[in-house]
Amino acid sequence: MGSNINSRTEKLFQFFWSAFFVIITVIAMVPILRVISMSFSTKEAILAGKVMVWPVGFTMEAYERALNSGSFVRAFGYSIVLMIGSTALSLIMTVLAAYPLSKKHLVGGGLIMTLFVLTMYLNPGVIPEYLNVRDFGMIDTVWSLLIPGALSAYNMIIMCNAFKGIDSAIYDAAKIDGCGETRTLLSVALPLVYPTIATLGLFYAVGRWNGISDVLYYINSSELFTVQMVLKQFIESINVTAEEGIQTNLVADNIKAASIVISMLPMLIVYPFVQKFFTKGIMIGAVKG
């Protein structure tokens, strides 16, 4: 009798939790669906307030307007190349910092790790960072978008813990087989922490793709503008024009929605390929072995 009551209670508990998360998911999806619907809807439908989660009067006008900008396609391609290069550089630096710090016998390893952790709490601010970038001659160069934020202390700690989670017997076996530290890292350690690498790669890629503050601070040449910056300028120019009349403002809302959808596409394409590593990668790096 008692076991039946416990079973019913557990099922009821699971039902309420499942219903709760379904409701949260729907609430989170509604704004996204509305933006997508607005991007495919007509100006008249937006004016009438008919657009909610389904397009009204399907049209591609907003996307045509967004893609007709001569600088947009160039900025989109440039941003993809920049994202790939930035992610690769960040992963290399993260691995090279985390692997030696995962070794217990590293002299001064605790002090170095403490310095990394301090950078997470002691932010120098925008002006000192700008002065550093300027003094190194990186203003208005692609290096200002690559180097200053190339290494995340938080991601490095996750990677370090992933390396620590590898059984020491595996390292000992590699050493007996004649592997040096470089060979051990490349042939033994990296394959074992691949899920963590994939997960951190996604973190770095999303951060670079969505990043716009460093472009605002360091870049003056339009040739180095990322797609986020081009979209920002595009929307701002429409907003200026929108002051002339209501109809122009409707077009602006339409194109804003299309711009948001376009900016989401690369991450929506990449995430399904990385998703299977996501939970495992975080768990491996979050628990010290």
From TrEMBL:
Record field: transmembrane: 12-33, 75-99, 106-122, 142-163, 184-206, 255-274
Gene Ontology cellular-component annotations: plasma membrane
ABC transmembrane type-1 domain span: 76-273
Top-rank taxon: Bacteria
Main location: membrane
One Gene Ontology biological process: transmembrane transport
Protein topology in the membrane: Multi-pass membrane protein
Subcellular location: Cell membrane
InterPro entries registered for this protein in UniProt: MetI-like (IPR000515), MetI-like_sf (IPR035906)
Iron recorded as keyword: no
Family the UniProt entry places it in: Belongs to the binding-protein-dependent transport system permease family.
Name of the protein: Carbohydrate ABC transporter permease
